[in-house]
Amino acid sequence: MSASQLSSIAPMADECALAPQFSTGTLECRTAAQAAPFISQSFSHYGIITPGEQAAIIALMAYETVDFKYHINQFPGRPGQGTRNMQMAAYNLMYAESIPELAPKVEIVTNGRAVDALSDDQQNQVRALLISNETYDFGSGAWFLSQICSDSIRQQLQLGSEAGWEAYLSDSGCVGTTVTQDRTAYWRRAMQILGVQ
After folding, report:
1. How far is CA 123 from the centre of its chain?
2. Cα–Cα distance measured from residue 110 to residue 118, given in angstroms and rounded to the nearest whole number
3. 82 - beta bridge partners?
4. Residue 191 DSSP SS3
5. Which candidate, 6, 65, 69, 60, places its Cα nearest to that of 33?
6. What is the Cα–Cα distance from 108 to 87, expressed in whole angstroms?
7. How does pLDDT run across 163-184, given as a tens digit for each residue?
8. 3-state secondary structure (DSSP) of residue 114
9. 0.90 cut: is pTM over it?
10. First vs last Cα of the chain: how many Å apart?
């Protein structure tokens, strides 16, 4: 995944000069040049080798983060939701626990409790462990597909079918969101740029 390919999929990812800065004082935006190496690394780490799967992950990440402008859910501001996959707090807890370097820190925050038993602040602390490291932040999309979604959905994505893309989004055992024209526009650009027929 090159920076130019990523820019073609996420056209507003060329620069961050006009990106919003929130009350935390942290500029969340990353350019395509900054994001591309970490996304490529995540594909290698989680075994996402087919262009069809890669296109789906990139399309979802780019759409959900407004071309990588955000990694914290600002609207409506759900506790714990974030990373470049903009995943919910429950998934961020699972993801953080799966990373050996983070697992002891997660235990300190959660004391072994499930996400429903955590305060908003504790959910945000788990998210902070992930987004403070670019590898983990940009790795969430590949982790999610490889660990949460079914083999059936992965197989459909590998074939490059629109039905597979729609299942990836809408299936309650995977992303579980609404298929929209805007989301699908990102997917079509990604499919074209990655040469999926």
Report:
1. 17
2. 7
3. 72, 87
4. helix
5. 6
6. 22
7. 999 999 999 999 999 999 999 9
8. coil
9. yes
10. 17
User: Within its chain, how far is the Cα of 100 from the centroid?
Assistant: 20
Q: Tell me how far apart the alpha carbons of residues 80 and 127 are, in angstroms, rounded to a whole number.
A: 5
What does the alpha-carbon distance between residue 78 and residue 120 come to, in Å, rounded to a whole number?
A: 9
Measured CA to CA in angstroms, residue 24 lies from 27, 28, 164, 192 at distances of 8, 10, 38, 37
Low-confidence ranges of the chain (pLDDT < 50): none
User: Is the bond preceding 76 in cis, omega lying within 30 degrees of 0?
Assistant: yes
Q: Encoding tokens for residue 124?
A: 């945000």
Residue spans of alpha helices (H) in 27-161: 32-45, 51-64, 89-98, 103-110, 120-131, 134-147, 151-159
Tokens of 25: 């004082």
Token representation of residue 54: 């890669």
d(CA 8, CA 37): 16
The residue type at 175 = V
Sign for the CA dihedral angle at 142, 140, 20, 77 comes to positive
Helix (H, G, I), strand (E, B) or coil at 21: coil
**Inter-helix orientation angle 32-45/134-147, to 10°:** 40
